C-alpha cells in the first residue's frame, strides 16, 4: 500500500515528500489547507490525546510547511503512544534528515523498515530503502 501520512492502514493515496533539504514551496491554497489541517488535528488531539494518528498527521503537515522541529515534536508522541507505528518512524526519519541529523534519520528509517518488513509491506520497505541509500 505504501507509506501514508494518514495512518498505518489508510486506503487513500500515499503522500509523497520531496528529498530537498529546504522547505517545500507551497501555493497559497496548499498553505491554507495545511494550516487548516493542523487546526483540525489540534482539536482531535485535545479530544483524544492518546490517539496516535492525529500526532502523526499533524507532524506530516508541519513537515510539508517546513516546520521540521514542530514535526518532530508531534512524531515523538505518536511513537511513544504506539511503538509499532512504522509510518511515524518513517516521517520522523525523513524530518530528521531534513534537519541534518543523519544518525537519527538512519535509526528511525531502519526501525520503519523493520516494522514494514514484519508486516510484509514490500512497497513501503522499498520506499524506506530508497531513503536509506541517501545516508
Residue-averaged pLDDT: 84
Report the strand count: 0
CATH architecture: Alpha Horseshoe
The fraction of residues assigned to DSSP E strands is under 5%
Total number of helical segments? 6
User: What gyration radius follows from the Cα positions, in whole Å?
Assistant: 14 Å
Structural category is: mainly alpha
The CATH superfamily is known as: Tetratricopeptide repeat domain
Structure description:
The protein has helices spanning 28-47, 52-64, 68-81, 86-98, 102-119, 122-132. The protein has a single domain, classed as Serine Threonine Protein Phosphatase 5, Tetratricopeptide repeat (Alpha Horseshoe). It is 66% helix and 0% strand. It has six helices and no strands. α2 (52-64) runs parallel beside α4 (86-98) and α4 (86-98) packs antiparallel against α5. With 135 residues, it is mainly α.
Give descriptors for this structure:
135 residues, mainly alpha, Serine Threonine Protein Phosphatase 5, Tetratricopeptide repeat, TPR-like_helical_dom_sf, TPR_rpt, Tetratricopeptide repeat-containing protein, repeat, Ycf3
Furnish the topology, listing elements before pairings.
Elements: H1 28-47, H2 52-64, H3 68-81, H4 86-98, H5 102-119, H6 122-132
Helix pairs in contact: 1-2, 2-3, 2-4, 3-4, 4-5, 5-6
Would you summarize the structure shown here?
It is built from 6 helices and no strands. By secondary structure, the chain is mostly helical.
Amino acid at each position: 500500500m505504501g507509506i501514508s501520512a494518514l495512518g498505518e492502514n489508510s486506503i487513500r493515496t500515499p503522500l509523497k515528500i520531496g528529498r530537498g533539504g529546504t522547505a517545500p514551496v507551497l501555493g497559497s491554497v496548499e498553505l491554507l489547507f495545511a494550516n487548516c489541517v493542523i487546526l483540525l488535528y489540534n482539536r482531535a488531539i485535545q479530544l483524544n490525546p492518546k490517539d496516535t494518528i492525529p500526532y502523526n498527521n499533524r507532524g506530516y503537515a508541519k513537515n510539508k510547511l517546513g516546520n521540521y522541529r514542530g514535526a518532530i515534536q508531534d512524531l515523538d508522541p505518536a511513537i511513544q503512544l504506539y511503538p509499532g507505528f512504522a509510518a511515524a518512524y518513517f516521517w520522523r526519519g525523513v524530518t530528521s534528515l531534513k534537519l541534518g541529523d543523519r544518525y537519527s534519520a538512519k535509526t528511525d528509517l531502519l526501525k520503519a523498515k523493520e516494522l514494514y518488513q514484519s508486516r510484509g509491506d514490500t512497497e513501503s520497505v522499498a520506499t524506506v530503502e530508497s531513503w536509506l541509500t541517501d545516508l
